[in-house]
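Amino Acid Chain and Its Fold in Token Form
===========================================
What this section holds: a protein sequence and its matching fold, both as plain text.
Structure line: whole-number tokens from a learned vocabulary of local backbone shapes, matched to residues.
Purpose: to set a sequence beside its fold so the mapping can be learned.
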Amino acid sequence: MATSTIVNSDAADRPDTGRDDAAFLQQVSDLLGPKGFTAEADALEPWLTDWRGRYTGSALGLASPASTREVADLVALCARYRIPVVAQGGNSGMVGGATPDTSGKSLLLSLRRMNQIRSIDATSGQAVCDAGVILQTFQEAAEENGLRFPLTLGGRGSATIGGLISTNAGGTQVLRHGTMRAQVLGLEGVLADGQIFNGLTPLKKDNRGFDLKQLLIGSEGTLGIVTAATLRLLPAPTARATAWIGLPGIKEARALLRHVESALGDTLEGFEVVPAHCLDSVLAHLPDSRSPLSERHEWNALVECVATTGDDAALRGRLEIALGEALERGLLADAVIASSEKQADTFWHLRDSISAAERALGPAMQHDISVPVEKMPEFILSAIPSIEGEFPGTRGVAFGHLGDGNVHFHILAPPGAVRGEWEETEGKKVSARVHDLVTDWGGSISAEHGIGQMKVDELGRLGDPTSLSMMRQVKQALDPLNILNPGKLVPLTHN
């Protein structure tokens, strides 16, 4: 646990005066100035709708503090006036977790002005940065110092460090390096009463009680607002080998995963599965793209290995031997190993474009689910025909991180379905059924995207009662006024 202290905010000690929006907004304006606060509709509009376009809310204004002290004073004001505050990073979330409700009574809090990388220490492999730092910017800064931040995802150009921490984001390298939780060595955040939690100093051993930073990681801004973090960095890789593989089936994908794990050990960093339907959608969506293989395969795998010793040629040679053995065992039908960094990036671009390509096809219900890795092929082969049979005209597709038991399980609407209408009617029934199946298989209805507002009712319906009770008690203890991102993540009552 990181060493930590609580710093009191004077504003938090002021007596409650009740809700007075005009007085509150004036004090926010005085606190943050014109660069830090706006209530102009045009400035607010881009941040009131989530990335998927499913939720649009309203807010009193947009606050953009420039320091942790300003965040603390602002949150203390919100507590005094009973103003809900919805923290937002890059607004690239998938479950409406950073979108205010439609009441117009909350304040939208952007951390994007807090975008400083405070320090990078190549010797210790650690960096301290503000919550508003863009993931891609942080990755590039690490690379300039001969280091690497071992978490990436498709939205790296907009996702912020604070948002990634608040949602415990995953991405394509979880198989080897773990989720965002594993990258956080220390944390700074603001609590619901304006107190500042100072836990940035990383200690390998600290047995003074609860690891309090872990409460904020993955809490989606409902327990506190992440303002900065100490993150681990790794040595920059010296070798990379990436392959696109055609497979006869999803069961062979699992067998191939185990084979490559055995052959290449901890160099295996990514193992993504892509069904033919998803690849077809991407090729249609990206005019200049083409399939890596000459023939169409029902399933594909994208495999990446990374090493910090040796060179590309040596690692590619090891991967080639492993894939040759897999071919002899009937685990794959065809494969191509990228001959350059550019070709490897092209393979990943195909994978990263799936969500946008599927979205362009029309309405769909997207599910971010996980089951044990060994059960995933059987789950896919069972769940897709079950859903398609129960809801005629739908089409099920599953793609993503097979290596860590997480796939994106999308159910496409029948032809002719109206976007916006189908999702709110038949689509909700589809999602409930998918979540029932996942729960029956011992899995999770949210593997890496969070709960937000999209899944909060489903978590209340399907979650373990004891776990839900503990979550509510923690929420009540840290945010008794329920001003931090209300209506998200924590089901307040049993359904």
Summary: DSSP finds 18 helices and 19 strands in the chain. Residues 312-328 form the longest helix (17 residues).
